[in-house]
Design a protein that fits this description.
elongated, five-stranded antiparallel β-sheet, about 70 residues, 5 strands, alpha+beta, 1 helix, about 25% helix, single chain, about 45% strand
C-alpha cells in the first residue's frame, strides 16, 4: 500500500521544488507533474510529486489522515 501526502509547492527550480505543509518544508522531485508551479498542491510519495490535486481534495486527504490518526491513537 502506498501513502501520498498533499503538499503545497512554494518554489520550483527545474525538476526540483520546495513544498510545505504546516510550516515543514521538503525538497521534492516534480518531474512527473506537467508544468508544476508555485501554489500547486501535489500528492507526494517517496519524495516525488505524483499527482496535482485541487485545494479541496488536499484538505479532504489531510482530514482523512487526521481521523485515521485519532482512530489509531496517534
Amino acid at each position: 500500500m502506498c501513502l501520498a501526502v498533499p503538499l503545497k509547492i512554494i518554489e520550483v527550480n527545474g525538476n526540483k521544488a520546495l513544498a510545505e505543509k504546516a510550516g515543514v518544508k521538503l525538497e521534492i522531485d516534480v518531474r512527473f507533474i506537467n508544468k508544476a508551479k508555485k501554489g500547486d498542491y501535489v500528492l507526494v510519495h517517496a519524495g516525488f510529486a505524483i499527482q496535482r490535486v485541487d485545494v479541496d481534495s488536499a484538505r479532504e486527504i489531510e482530514e482523512a489522515g487526521e481521523r485515521l490518526g485519532k482512530y489509531l491513537g496517534k
